[in-house]
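A further point concerns the way the authors explain their paired sequence and structure data. Nothing conveys this as quickly as seeing an actual entry. An entry of this sort, consisting of the sequence and the corresponding backbone structure tokens, reads as follows:
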Amino acid sequence: MRQVVSAARHVAASEAATAIELRDVNKWFGSFHALRNINLSVSPGERIVICGPSGSGKSTMIRCINHLEEHQTGEIVVNGRALTADLRKIDEIRSDVGMVFQHFNLFPHLTVLENCTLAPIWVRRMPRKTAEEAARRYLDRVHIAEKADSYPGQLSGGQQQRAAIARALCMNPKIMLFDEPTSALDPEMVKEVLDTMVSLAGEGMTMLCVTHEMGFAREVADRVVFMDRGEIVEANTPHEFFSNPRSERARQFLAQILK
């Protein structure tokens, strides 16, 4: 039943404007060809899980979407805006795209509330009171409202990552990028972060998530994108990807990770 609902949502989303489009994107680090002719189209509200072995280009690809990494050839379009070296265009795109990193990246000398309000106040020029009210709403949404006046060092890893998610949401992004958000967490803290992401997904947020959490992919993803050696090897629904992977490389990967 879930696959039928997911497929219907995907068809409806694909009829709308494209949220993200990557066309023949290539990226090199020196002589290392990190991304090879990447083509990927993401519809508004679609949830994409990106998986693959270490070094396959997963994080590089999503970091190129908000210009944390610069692609050398090809085209990236986010909400109808082409990503170029124009700083104003980059800022416009980043204002629509929230990102959550592996290592939280919270400022240790600021409280959780101050971490959440910093960008809205200084980037969006939001009045402090308005920014604080919004931050408290999002902290409540990720179930750490009581930690607003705490410092990051006083929080568990799972709480810090949920604070990082709230911080990203405070900019009212249309798209959320997650770069292995649970890989730095102790196992018992993983579920609380994944539950927060499942909740976001249920509200229709466009999401690209690099993760090895295959249970999350089965539950939430509209599509699973498998990468290897800088290429998208295959992309399919979770049901098809896990039950009938098309490529031998994906079959090998799943045999290792689903042991």
In short: The CA atoms of residues 25 and 74 lie 4 Å apart.
